[in-house]
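call fold(seq) -> C-alpha cells
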Amino acid sequence: MECFDTCPLDPFYMLMERPLPLLHTSLNRKTNKKVKCLFLAKLILTFLYNAITVDVPNFVLISTYMAVMARLAPDGAQFDARQFDSKMNDLLATEGKDFFTSYDEVYDSFDAMGLQENLLRGIYAYGFEKPSAIQQRGIVPFCKGLDVIQQAQSGTGKTATFCSGILQQLDYGLIQCQSLVLAPTRELAQQIEKVMRALGDYLGVKVHACVGGTSVREDQRILAAGVHVVVGTPGRVFDMLRRQSLRPDCLRMFVLDEADEMLSRGFKDQIYDIFQMLPTKVQVGVFSATMPPEALDITRKFMNKPVRILVKRDELTLEGIKQFYVNVDKEEWKLETLCDLYETLAITQSVIFVNTRRKVDWLTDKMRSRDHTVSATHGDMDQNTRDIIMREFRSGSSRVLITTDLLARGIDVQQVSLVINYDLPTQPENYLHRIGRSGRFGRKGVAINFVTTDDERMLFDIQKFYNVVIEELPSNVADLL
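ret:
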C-alpha cells in the first residue's frame, strides 16, 4: 500500500474541491504510465472507502472521471485541458442520465417543495399547474442556498425556477438589494422582471430592471428608495455598482441567465468585474439552454461545489417543435418563398429571423410593399420603440415579427406557432434559442429553415450538434400549424 503514497495526485481532494474542473493543475504535464496507474488505483480505493464511510455529495462523479481518464491522450502526450473538457461534455451527453446532478430529489408538485404560501399563490396565479422537469429538480436546491448550474432547453421554465428560489429566500422586511440577476439583453432582463413581479405578487417583492437605454438618474432614484431584487444587463449594473448607487452589502444571491451568451466575447470581462465587487459568500446560480465548456469556467473561479442539473445534448431540441427546411437555390429567391408561405398558411403569430440589422429593415420594407403586415425590432432601435413593438406583438395586435438573434434569448411570447429562419444562424448554439420561441412549455410549433447552397454545411452542423434530422418541408405544412 505504501506505493500509493508515491502518486503525486490526490483524487479524493480533487473530486471534493474541484469536481468538474478537469485536473488541470495535476495532469498538465507529460504523465507516464506508472503515475496514471497509481492515480487510477488510488481513485478506486478512495471511492470504495468514502462510499462506505462518509457521505460524499459528488461521489457519483468518480465513475465519470474514470471513464474520461480512460480516453486521455496516449502515454507521453501532453495533457490538453480543453480536450478533457470536451471529452467530459461528450461523456455527459452520451452516457449520462437525463439530469446529471449531485442532488437527486425530484418534486412532482409545487406544494411538495416547502414554498411559502404566498409564493405558491403567485405561482398558481401565473398559470403554472405542475412543475416542469427542470423545476422539479432545480427549485429546491436553489431555495436551500446551494450554488447551482442548471441547463435545460429554452421554454422549459428556467426563469421561473430561479425566480422562485430567489423569492423563497428574500427577507421582505429588509428593503435592500438581496439578489442580483444578470441577463444579456434588455428585453430578457425586463421579461425576468415581469416574471419576478408576477410570482412575487402576494409577497410584496420590490424589483427593478437596470438596463441600458433608460435614465441613469431614474435607476439611482429607485435604488436609493430600496428594492429586494435587481435584474439588469452587465453594463448598467456595473455602472450602478461603480457609482455605489447599487450597494452589494446585503447581496446573498447572484444569478446569470443565459450564461453561454453572458460569458461570450464582450460580456465575460464585465461579469468578472461584477463578481469582484460581490460578497465572497454570495450564492451563485448559472442558468442556460446550452452550456459549452467555456461557460463552465465560471464554476472554477466563483462557485462552491455547485449542484449540477444538466441535460443531454440530444434532448436540447424542444419536443413538440416540428423542424423542416426549404431548398432555396439563390438568396434572392427567399423573399418569394416567404411570401408564398404566408399566402398559403393561416398563422396566428410568427417570428422571422435574419442575421443582420440591415436585412431586418430591408425585409420589413419588402414585406410591407407586398401588403403583408409585419413588425420589426433590432438593436439599433431606441429602447422605447422596441418596448412598444414587443408590447404589440405580445398582445397579438402584431402577428409577424422580423428580428435578429436579439429576440432569441428568453423572450416569452406565448402564442408563437411558427419560426422561420430566413437566414440560418451563424452558430449552431443559436438555433436552439431561435426555435425555442415556438411551442413553449409543451405547446406545438413549427420551425422552417430557408437553405441555400451556401447554407448546406450549417444545416448539417446543426443536425449533428443537436442529433436531429431536419426533414424537407412537406406539401401539407398547413395541417401542422
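The chain has a mean pLDDT of 77.
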